[in-house]
Design brief:
The chain is of the alpha/beta class. The protein contains 7 helices and 8 strands; from the N terminus they run ββαβαβαβααβαβαβ. The chain has one domain: TIM Barrel (Alpha-Beta Barrel). Helix content is 33%, strand content 17%. Strands 1-2-3-4-5-6-7-8 form an 8-stranded mixed sheet. It starts with 5 loop residues before the first strand and ends with a strand.
């Protein structure tokens, strides 16, 4: 079977051996982050819909998983923001109901966590990995370039509310962009936000592939370790 929606398995820095699931296929996101390896987002959107047929994605998953491959996670990620796909909850439920031996992860920017349905879709995932790169409104705008209707205050409230309800492993990933979110003041604000969110784990990283904006530089190991120590996290 030729697969369109699943890819890998890949050896992930975060998740070990991970089978990727991309329910969007092309760059569809609520943001246009300067560091994104998939390039700029042409049409930033908040619209949730079935971007690709859920039954076709299920068929691919069933075809691949029936052979019982060795995986650490089945991970929803890919070319955009997976919580924009309106059947994400059906897909996570399909895996947990039919292939309960596998753990499900979702990599998300967390901007739609203020919506009740998104919290429900993510409830059965074993791990949710959320990007949190800045807390100051101006820095958040500069790095993540979100949809015009989003703001960092609502974003943070959504993360705190989600943590209260979510029973799986919550990981926060901070991607360091030198010159933007590596200053002491911003790092301290991120630390205070993490105290409120109470994640299970904090990962600190830097660009690994060509970013959307060529001026984004890789953070050095010493800087990453300094920020990870301040945030109580680890460098990935």
């Amino acid at each position: 079977m030729r697969y369109r929606y699943i890819f890998g398995p890949v050896h992930s820095r975060r998740l070990g051996i991970s089978l990727g699931v991309d329910p969007l296929l092309y760059k569809t996101c609520t943001m246009s982050c300067v560091y994104c390896e998939n390039g700029p987002t042409a049409g930033i959107t908040l619209e949730q819909k079935e971007y690709n047929p859920v039954e076709e994605i299920k068929e691919e998953l069933e075809s691949y998983l029936k052979n019982k491959p060795a995986l650490d996670y089945i991970t929803f990620s890919g070319m955009g923001e997976p919580t924009l796909h309106s059947s994400l909850g059906k897909l996570t439920g399909f895996i947990k109901d039919n292939f309960p031996g596998y753990r499900v992860a979702v990599l998300t920017n967390g901007t739609l966590l203020y919506r009740r349905e998104v919290k429900e879709w993510l409830a059965r995932a074993d791990l949710v990995d959320i990007s949190l790169d800045a807390v100051s409104p101006e820095t958040w705008q500069a790095i993540n370039r979100p949809h015009a209707l989003l703001n960092v205050e609502g974003f943070l409230r959504g993360l705190v509310a989600f943590r209260r309800e979510y029973c799986g492993e919550l990981v926060i990933c901070v991607l360091v962009v030198p010159g933007l979110n590596d200053g002491r003041a911003e790092v301290e604000k991120i630390k205070q936000a993490l105290i409120q969110i109470k994640p299970d784990r904090v990962n600190v990283g830097t660009v690994d592939r060509a970013p959307a904006e060529p001026w984004v530089e890789e953070a050095g190991r010493e800087l990453l370790e300094y920020i990870a120590a301040k945030l109580g996290g680890e460098v990935i």
